[in-house]
Amino acid sequence: MQDLNTARARADTYRLLGRLCLAELDTHLLCALRAAPEFAPSLDEEEEPLLAAIRAEYARLVLFNLPPYESVYLDEQVMLNTDATHAVVAAYREGGYSPAGQVGAPDHVGLELAFLGHLAAAEATALERGDAVGARCERARQARFLVAHVGRWAPLWASGIARLARVPFYRALGEIVAELVLQGLEQAAAQGGPRAPRGSDR
To answer: What is the pLDDT of residues 122-156, one digit of tens each?
Structure first.
């Protein structure tokens, strides 16, 4: 039961963080996050001006200063939709994940985090069925994707968000994303998962 609850919590966390990286907050999500201890202190202002500030900050950080795409960080061409992007799409296909909507390119950090949430949810489903082999397979997919993709660049991107943020919410989001991904890498290594490829620290 503990493994099941852990997988469910991991799925919910990755999906939430993915959503927060993909677009600005809306009223419904703002209300929900005000009940979350990780975000509540950064959202203690009146709703209308707070949402306006958050929307402007999202545009400044994500749209204009720190592109949230793996290929920009890892591919030598520093462009969208390169070989790095194609590798991410292949991982999505293998994991049975079809991103909804258009956000520039499939290797957006929000989609990559959502994919980890998708895999964690699949792990939870396997555990519910009593399929230990299937659960291990989904857990291994998460470890591989963390090491080969998200872990190689998302902590750097998220740390940049936290450092440049003028609005406390995005400072908190950047710190949380960086910490979660780094923890995932540590857990993958502790469980004998794949190691990061050479050159992943550039």
So the answer is: 999 999 999 999 999 999 999 999 999 999 999 99
SS3 content of the chain, % helix, strand, coil (to 5): 70, 0, 30
Q: Which residue has the tokens 């991982």?
A: 91
The gap from C-alpha 46 to its chain's centroid, in whole angstroms, comes to 28
Domain 2-190 has CATH 1.10.10.60: no
Which residue in 112, 129, 89 sits closest to 7, CA to CA? 129
Query: What does the alpha-carbon distance between residue 163 and residue 179 come to, in Å, rounded to a whole number?
Result: 14
Exposed / middle / buried, residue 144 (Cβ in 10 Å: 0-12, 13-18, 19+): middle
Q: SS3 for 23-62, per residue?
A: CCCCHHHHHHHCCCCCCHHHHCCCHHHHHHHHHHHHHHHH
> CA angle, corner 167, sides to 67 and 172, nearest 5?
75
Cα(118)–Cα(121) distance, integer angstroms = 5
Please tell me whether residue 108 adopts helix, strand or coil conformation.
Answer: strand
pTM greater than 0.90: yes
